[in-house]
Write a structure and sequence with these properties.
The protein has 146 residues and is of the alpha/beta class. The protein is built from seven helices and five strands, in the order H-E-H-E-H-E-H-H-E-H-E-H. Strands 1-2-3-4-5 form a five-stranded parallel β-sheet.
Length: 146
């Protein structure tokens, strides 16, 4: 796994041609368990983007172990960490709120903002409210606004 040293420069040119800035651009990386062995390469690669002003987000669709997730969050210090409420509910059942509180503490320690996604039913919405994440997103909110 590798990111070319000047990769961020190419995107910077395209972004500027669109009238945007790197400071308003978030590079999102969907994290899977296969990335665990590439932590150091990810850190080196993302330092290039960060030096150019990009914001970094880690998206966990399926949560890897707490230890590996925390290690990656601490080492990359992303601007945003996005988690799937649906997957946390499935994997943790009645312990989902405890798991969310733990993950929120890890996220807050690095001054990252937490995003809880896939809020698609009342139970998820209650978890979202009780967990204290910075941002939420999901179809549950779309239904309540209509």
């Amino acid at each position: 796994m590798g990111i070319k040293k000047d990769h961020g420069a190419y995107f910077e040119t395209v972004i500027e041609q669109c009238g945007l800035t790197t400071q308003n651009t978030v590079i999102v990386l969907a994290i899977t368990s296969s990335y665990v062995k590439y932590n150091d390469a990810l850190i080196r690669g993302f330092s290039n983007y960060r030096q150019r002003g990009y914001q970094i987000a880690l998206r966990f669709d399926h949560l890897i172990s707490d230890k590996h997730a925390a290690e990656l969050i601490f080492k990359l210090t992303p601007d945003f960490v996005s988690l799937s409420a649906r997957q946390i509910e499935i994997a943790n059942g009645s312990n989902a709120l405890t798991k969310l509180h733990l993950l929120k503490r890890i996220i807050s320690t690095t001054s990252s903002k937490g995003i809880l996604r896939q809020i698609d039913r009342k139970k998820s919405e209650i978890l979202a409210r009780q967990s204290g994440f910075d941002f939420v997103e999901g179809s549950y909110y779309e239904r309540t606004l209509n």
